[in-house]
# Entry
Amino acid sequence: MKITVERAVLLKALAHVQSVVERRNTIPILANVLLAAQDGTLRLTATDMEIAVVEEISGVQITRPGRTTAPAATLYEIVRKLPEGAKVELDHAGGDAALKLRAGRFNTDLSVLPVEDFPAMTDGKLPFGFALPAGQLRELIDRTRFAISTEETRYYLNGIFLHATDSAGAPVLRAVATDGHRLARIEEPLPEGAAGMPGVIIPRKTVNEVRKLAEETQDEIAIRLSETKIRFEIGTVHLTSKLIDGTFPEYDRVIPRGNDKILRVSKKEFAEAVGRVAAISSERSRPVKLSIDRNHLLLSASSAEQGQAQEELDADVVQYESSPLEIGFQARYLNDITDQIADQVEFRFADGSAPTVVTDSAKPEALYVLMPMRV
Amino acid sequence: MATVPACWARRGFGTRRAEMPALCRDCCEALPADAARCACGGRRLLRHPELFTLTVAHVDCDAFYASVEKRDRPELLARPVIVGGGRRGVVAACCYIARTRGVRSAMPMFKALAACPDAVVIKPEMAKYVAAGRQVRSLMQDLTPLVQPLSIDEAVLDLRGTEALHRAPPAIVLARFARAVEREVGVTVSIGLAPNRLLAKLTAERDKPRGFAVLGQGEAAGWLAPQPVGVLPGIGPALERRLGAVGITRLGQLAALPPLEAARRLGEEGPLLAARARGEDARPVDPARETKSISAETTFESDLAAQAALEARLWPLCEKLARRLGEQGFAAGGVVLKLKTAAFATRTRTVRLAIPTRLPETLFAATRPLLADAADGTAFRLIGIGAQPLAPAAEADRGDLADPEAPRRAARWAAVETLRARFGAAAVLQGRSLPPKGG
# Structure
């Protein structure tokens, strides 16, 4: 294989694929990127056995077609440090010979591993397919991924549950994540082709990789899936991932329906006050207490070592008409949710110890449930 | 001390009252040997031939959670109080008034309320109990450095060598301690004073609540002999039935087994159990050794390698561990899987739980992936499961947004255990514990 390619083009492709490569790898071949040059295109593939990312770049000058694998992280680092506008030549004589990389007066020899050792990840049959605008996919991810659990024992919570369902009679595509303490649920109108799709749990790493790739585009993203795999086609990148083989809990029954004590508070003032009050304690699990009275909200936190802090919010930013209430939440959980809300946060409480519903007053299609802490 | 036949000593024979050391539990002073009552007016007198020579004490707070609640809400003093319920649905602690109506710890709440409909049910507030428990512990540590906590409200103390420091023998120091706890913490304790840990523990049970019981070396064997074997820590319902099957129902029979015979009939632990039945216990009081884990394990008749076969052996251990956690008032904050290979190499795998549990199915679900990981075709001779770290029972199985059914499963397990306690272990079985079809 011998090719010449623009540094910027190669760098972008390497950035896309190398991020799936695990930094600490027990299987050497998984640290490598597969390079395949043929018919004017260079195809780069990287995998961790759960996710495979493939990118095809065209406009590559191919002197001699061929295939090899090289260490992904090293190759990426080198290309990143080459001067802008450089032309990169990759030359592999075949077999065990080193991959020679030349750019201007720089050259290096990278050791390669046999192409045959590179694990092939087959997509299998992906019977369901639909397309989402990149912006919608980003929203589905952003509004749920903070609630993904890292717990080992309930592995089925380690991802976003994506499924087709009905909401108020309209078909929707819904994404849900929960770690047991909070639950995030958002829905979009069901895209064409998604009806009848199985509910799937997309692993956290896949979610994060897809989110990175979706950052760069405004186009539609094509999604195909089966019960065991999902594929995202984002521009020139195809990412295929295994799905979590498990049953997501029946989340619907933990979403309270009858909470009738409604607090509306301006997001900016609320989020900032939570941050300030919570700063009194270095312990992350310390609660911030909300003492709510008619159009009045007192936030307070205390720590045995540091003392206590409080801040009041008044009628200019707070609306509350129900009976007085005291309730505590972990500050980080509050902020994770308010980060997703634009202007006004709406809390719906039952009492000081029951799950609380939080929404964006302007965006009811996203909903969060938060377990209170004892204060 | 003059040695007399144990059965005499038990009745106070052999030592005339005039020679028997005594103390008043109210003013905490030694009394003239023949005093009928104390000068302070106190009638709670303690007399025992070995009163001023024994040093090992087992201290247990009475109905601890319930007592703390009554302390904080004096208007409940005369009412039956149950701590527990809420989402967990079982009794975590109940006061002595509730106990007279038949309420017991770990009983499902619906049963407790059926027995005692006027009970005041209070949700557990662990932070409060932990604080009170610490206060009690710190009072203990004022007496001796040899304090070994056994749970939040229970510890064993060795006061050997403290007489010079306190200018009083251990019995008097302990009587003062009991008063101090009442005064400063506002709960009562029961004390068992004896020559060793085992006897101290058994003795503490004899005079609850607000008790102080003494068991001397001379009377120990005689007192133990007529007791049912089940009172001995380490003899659970299963072993009790096995002993019963060979005609051993009283500790005296167990005590009489020579070591070889005990080993042959009861396995490795046999000689130790026989020694315990005689009241012998050489375990030192070790302040560094808190209960850190509770476990259950089993050795196979022939080595096993297949994952399914190992899982089949894992399930009963999960049930056993859940039962032990229940008995000892703990929950599992994490799980340890232990496997011993045919070549006697030990493999362990651990995992932390998001919510502590005392349910067999949750323990099983957490351990199964660990087993899948460890079972690589190697032949194993032993499998074990342990709870580590331990967590307070009140934090167990509360359920969360991802598992709202946990409290119901906890209530179901408690109900099943109640049935088993009444009708035997085979009264309710999980399908999983039955042999496979045709097997």
